[in-house]
Amino acid sequence: MKKLIVIVLVMTASFFSLSCKAQVEKTLEPKLENISWISGDWKGEAFGGQVEENWSKPSGGSMMATFKLINNNAVSFYEIEIIREVENTLILQLKHFNNDLKGWETKDETVDFPLKEITANKVTFEGMSFEKISDHEMNVYVDIHQKNGSIETVKFNYTK
Fold this sequence. Notes:
mainly beta, 14% helix, 53% strand
């Protein structure tokens, strides 16, 4: 009877170990085709208003996006974003603009987010990540640096 219990425990432990390993997502190569699911016209709510983010399909070694926030039927700000392949990795870069297209950053300055990891349903950059929920839903998480030095992570839930 003790041998049977030991065998059952060993088999259970082996099964548990295998199922845990299967749940760990495989890291994918830093290629645009591995994140092409981001492309599309996305809409959601954030910062007390409506947000739109429109991502192109990969072409020419990059993907590009426009973003706008609308509060009280007026644009609060815009962003232009790109994800591009650089030296066997990806980088996300963006620039912010007021509603009159006057830039927040200087002419040659960008806000850069180096790639950390890509899996089948998530791409993580330093300070921003995209999570695929379904073919028509994704979450974007952005770390926003506060004036007091703390970091607040804002979640954007988008649908298309």
